[in-house]
Specification:
CATH topology: Arc Repressor Mutant, subunit A
Order of helices and strands: HEHHEEHHH
Strand content: 5-15%
CATH superfamily: Winged helix-like DNA-binding domain superfamily/Winged helix DNA-binding domain
CATH class: Mainly Alpha
Helix content: 40-55%
Distance between the termini: 26 Å
Number of helices: 6
Shape: globular
Largest sheet: 3 strands, antiparallel
Oligomer: single chain
Number of strands: 3
Strand order of the largest sheet: 1-3-2
Radius of gyration: 15 Å
Length: 104
């Protein structure tokens, strides 16, 4: 359900509020259009993201997290705290991802 390089970052960004596809791409550096589309579809199928299409021209689509995903927020916050303490302090640790930069 949460496997995939970008799902954590997508959920974190959507926890801040509803976003359109283009805004999500800008908020998550490095994610391709194809990968973002695929990960959003999987999160929607898993019941963690809600996709709303508005009957406008041009069409407007917004993404938001569901209550099930909201319940994961404390888990993500604890993972972030753990990574701050242990993840980046070890020699050879990879640079911080976009999530950490956004959270600070």
């Amino acid at each position: 359900m949460l496997t995939g390089k970008w799902k954590g970052e997508i959920l974190w960004q959507l926890a801040q509020g509803k976003e359109r596809f283009g805004a999500l791409r800008r908020l998550i550096p490095g994610v391709s259009q194809h990968m973002l589309t695929a990960q959003l579809r999987e999160l929607e199928a898993d019941g963690l993201v809600k996709r709303t299409v508005y009957p406008e021209v041009p069409p407007r689509v917004e993404y938001e997290i569901t209550e099930a995903a909201r319940a994961l927020r404390p888990v993500f916050e604890e993972l972030f705290k753990w990574s701050e303490q242990y993840g980046r302090n070890r020699p050879g640790a990879p640079p911080a991802s976009g999530v950490s930069a956004q959270v600070r």
